[in-house]
Amino acid sequence: MDQRIFTLSNALVSNDLNEGVIEFAHQGPLLKLKNGSTNFVITGNVIFNILRKNSVIEEGKCFQNYLLEHEDQIDIITTKNSVFGYLAVEGGFQIKKVWDSYSVNTKAKVGPNNGEKFSSGEKIYIKKSKVKNFIKKKINYEKSLDKNIKIIKGTNFDYFSEEAKNKFFKEEFLVTNLSDRMGMRLEGPKLNNIVNTNIKSEGLVKGVVQVPADGNPIILFSDHGSIGGYPKIAVVITADHDKTAQL
């Protein structure tokens, strides 16, 4: 969902930038390393602790790597003012690609792990079971972010009244609980369509903002469908997809 911090998680443990990682939303797992050692990093705005086997609790910091040893644990408590976080380990996890991808679509049951999320008590294997030369790395990520989200006009921009366009750009919308990996449903001032609330199905891209008949916008995300028939008022630019997903 957040391509930028996914890529950074792999870079910080010297992986191929497309290596598989664990993505979590809002709350992550409690994980214990049963054998060997591993170099890991967590990226995002995440609160987590490292529970050492000698009972020492170490407060973790995002965007810097740590050495985890036999019987140490990672307790990923919650994301903070964001949605998604990422856990990467040096060498990656032992998961098989499906259609040349490590991604999982749980609604379609497609991807590694039979298209399912990892469940409590499940064993997750890593490719590299021992770290020979641990090198500390970290970056200052948060201070590099621009908070604004930029858009361009959608293909059906002129379907909407001038009042609706002004509302879309100037008024506040709430992210609803109906949001998921397919899209983010917003709630706020209704956007009045003056032409047609349904159109012939057209191709869709990530970041497009559709407006169904109820007037509440939907921003499409990574698992969106390939076609759709709602008018499109705008498209979030590619560079700002990651920030949008974290709202």
From TrEMBL:
Keywords: ATP-binding, Hydrolase, Nucleotide-binding
InterPro entries named among the record's database cross-references: CT_A_B (IPR003778), Cyclophilin-like_dom_sf (IPR029000), PxpC (IPR052708)
Any Pfam family: CT_A_B
GO molecular function terms listed in the Swiss-Prot or TrEMBL record: ATP binding; hydrolase activity
Coiled-coil zones: none
Keyword hit for Calcium: no
Annotated Carboxyltransferase domain residues: 1-247
PANTHER family per the UniProt record, alphabetical: 5-OXOPROLINASE SUBUNIT C (PTHR43309)
Protein name: Carboxyltransferase domain-containing protein
